[in-house]
Amino acid sequence: MNTSPLIDIQQISYSYPLQIKANSPAQSLKALQDVSLQIQPGEYLAVLGHNGSGKSTLAQHCNALLTPTTGRVLVAGLDTGDNTQRRAIRDCVGMIFQNPDNQIIATVVEDDVAWALAVRGLPAALIAERVEQAMAAVDISHLRKLPPHRLSGGQKQRLAIAGVLALRPKCIIADEATSQLDPLSRREITALLHQLHQELGLTIIQVTHLLEEAALAQRVIVMEQGRIVTQGTPSTVFADVERLRQLKLSIPEPIALAERLRASGFTISREALTVEAIAREILH
Amino acid sequence: MTDPIISVKNLYHTYQSGPLQKAALVDITLEIERGSCSAIIGVTGSGKSTLVQHFNGLLRPTSGSLVVDGVNIKAKGADLKTLRQRVGLLFQFPESQLFGHTVYADVAFGPRRLNLSKSEVRTRVLHALNTVGLPPHDYAQRSPFELSGGQRRRVALAGVLAMSPKILILDEPTTGLDADGRNEFYQYLHHIQQKDAVTIILVSHDMSEVALLADQLFVLHNGRLVAQGSPRAIFTQDTLLREWGLMEPPLSELLILLRKKGLPIPEQVFTLDEAFNVLQALRTTQHERKNV
């Protein structure tokens, strides 16, 4: 690659300190082991893995919420271990979490979007302009005067994304951001991430345990026991369905069906990973 | 219905009164069969949680009638204490409610408050732990906080089971669990329904889960019961489901799409095996036609 990566993870390991009982021996839990990963500007990366595989821990290293025990992480050239760069790093890489209620602060939608800008002391006119654009980008402008508790789960996640967008980041990390949503909202949020990727050229890191959410990413990595165990385009990673099962990922039924049909002699392309694409393959 | 364990008639529930009043449930009439597994589905704010909180007397109907296992909830002096022992409610993320020093102490907390003998408490705790796949020998004396998320959730489930409920209500029971954790949880639920003859009521927005587990679905939309029926019947109605903010599970979505494009797939085809068999059969007949 000629371009330098936006996020450069260099051989990092991370251990969570564990304190169980007074009499038990001191332990630490290795959450990441010797992980290296380069994420290019404008890339759409999906990070797959079951609970406890290390995917969230890895994501939290991408905006200095965690810093590695060994190795280092550079974000736009800035070392996440350098305390003085934390704010610049977090302005560059924003994060959306699983539970929408945990990331809303203000009592009115538009104030919540403005929050981080106000904290940074930006002039009012600039804040107003950015808030306006951020709300428009995620289509919540019509909800601006509402208190956040009146929003649906999907709308709350849109609000969280708007709050991050207002900071004009280069990258957004969605850490299981859809797992508490109903299926339609889940799909809408994934579609919104793809739209932001295409229209604003944002780098997206989508952390998920759902294959269907990773199907349209440009690159997929799969985590297991704190390591990256496989990576590639969705079609190469999903080609080995058995391996994904072993990695405790659930296989969406349409993909499982395509796999069985293929095994019994149907010609179904491995590139077909969405319901629409699989239907097309079955029909041709 | 032959033997409803819950029967709801013209139930209304209105939160608050005056200018802020909001009708959360409107004219709900339904029956839940003893020993069945039912699921209540609907988007956030459709009234699912409000409805199930009536089933163990946490909420009372504003009007209408509700009889749960013979107890009339509306009636003055209804025995809510007995009712709450019969109806176990597992909230969303129940593992956050664990507090015992040991798994045993946590699961025993409820039964100890029932004036049972020590040995009866013990029997119930051991049975509950075995049911959820946490053998007491290995787990009873451990701290719940050193267990994995999936295991902690099963401890919470054991705590509810140790009350020997006749009805078990689960609010989004598998949110946040991975595929293995989910499948294990389903096995225990199946066991509880079959062996212990517990009636199960699921609140879920995971349509694949609902399709797999439930005999009967109840669809809520804006506080009204808009549909009920088997998953097979409900999940063919893609247009209506979208109106209610819902979606059929991915396999049903695929089958609906294939039907729309003209493949003659019967409406009752629902499971992966059925879909595979019917597609294979269709292919064989196509080949035969070509060869004629």
Characterise the protein shown here.
Chain A has helices spanning 55-61, 86-92, 109-119, 124-137, 153-165, 183-200, 211-214, 234-237, 241-246, 253-263, 275-283, and strands spanning 7-18, 27-39, 44-48, 70-75, 78-79, 93-96, 171-175, 203-208, 219-224, 227-232. By secondary structure, chain A is an alpha/beta fold. In chain A, the strands form two sheets. In chain A, strands 6-7-8-3-9-10 form a six-stranded mixed beta sheet, with helices on both faces. Chain A has a four-stranded antiparallel beta sheet with strand order 2-1-4-5. In chain A, a hairpin with a 2-residue loop joins β4 and β5. Chain B is α/β, with parallel strands linked by helices and 292 residues long. Chain B is 41% helix and 22% strand. Chain B has helices at 48-55, 80-86, 103-112, 118-131, 136-139, 149-161, 179-195, 207-213, 231-234, 238-243, 250-260, 272-291; strands at 4-15, 22-33, 37-41, 63-68, 71-72, 87-90, 167-171, 199-203, 216-221, 224-229. Chain B has a six-stranded mixed beta sheet, with helices on both faces. In chain B, α4 packs across α6 (149-161). At the A-B interface, α6, α10 and α11 of A face α7, α11 and α12 of B.
List its traits:
heterodimer, A: alpha/beta, B: 292 residues, alpha/beta, six-stranded mixed beta sheet, four-stranded antiparallel beta sheet
